Amino acid sequence: MDVLQRLIALNHASGHVANLTDAARRWAHEEPWNEEAVLAVVQAYVAEGDRDNAQVQLKVAQALLDRTSAPPRLRTTFDQLDRAAARLPSFKPQNSSSGAERNFPTVDFGRYMLLGRQGELGQLKKVWAAACGGSSQVLTLEGDTGIGKSRLVNELVAHVRSGSEHPALVGHGNIRTNDHALGMLRTAFAYIPEAYRVTLQTAAEAISEQAWNAVSLYPEFRALAPDREPGYLAPLDAASEVTRRHVATLELLDAIMVRGCLLLVWEDAYPGDAETRRIIDALTETSRRVLVVRTRRASSGEE
To answer: Domain named Orc1-like AAA ATPase: which ranges (predicted)?
Structure first.
C-alpha cells in the first residue's frame, strides 16, 4: 500500500491524471474499508473533471465516515472534495474515457487467445451453463503460481461478460480481508462494471428494509443503491449480528439471481474470512443459479 500511496502523490504532483486514477482505484480495491483510499479515488475523479463518478464515490466515503471514528482531517478533506465536485460541470470531459473503460478492471483479460487450455475452458463453460440451470456449484482451481489458474478463470469471466446479461463479479482474498466481516465477498462488489449497475441496483432496491439496513452498513453494498436510505438497525449481541448479516447478504444475492445467473470469482481465496465462507456454503445448499470459482496456490490450506 505504501507504494500505491507514493504513486498517488507523485502522479498528483506531476499532473498525470490517468495514472493517478489507476493508482487510487488499486488502493481502494485492496482496502475498500479505508476512508483515505476511497477519498483518493474521489480526488482522482475530481482531477479528471468527472463529476458523476466523483459524487458516487463521495457517497461511499460518506457511508464509511458515518460508521467510523474518522479523524477530523478526513472529514475536512471530504468537505473540500464535496465542494470541488459540486463545482464541476455535469457533463463528462471529452478527453476522458467512457464510464465502462474507466472502471478499474479487476482482471486482465489479455490480448491473446488462451492456448493449450481450451479443454479446461470448455469444461468451465459447461459448469457455468449447469449453474444457470439451477445447479449451483463451487469450483476450486489449485496449483503452483504461474500455471495459468488466473488466466483460465479470466477467460471464463470474459465469456460471461461478453453477453452482459449475467453478472460476473471478481474479488480477491488477502490477509486484510480475513480480518473483516464479509471482507472477501465485499471485494467482489468493490467495482461493478457499468453493464451490471442497473441489474444490481434493482436487486438492492428490491430486498426487504431489514435486509437493506443490515447490508448497507458496508459501502460496497450501499453503493449499489445510493439513493435508498438505510433505516434504524437495532443493536444485537455479536452472534445474533453475524446471523442477521448472513441472512441479509443471502437475500441480496438471491435478489440478484432472480434477474439472472451469478458468477462469483475469488483469486487467492484461501483462507478467506469465515463469514464469506459461510455464505459460499449456503449458496450451494439449495438450488441457486450461481457458480463460485476460487483459485488458490498449491501450498495454501483452508482453515
So the answer is: 114-293
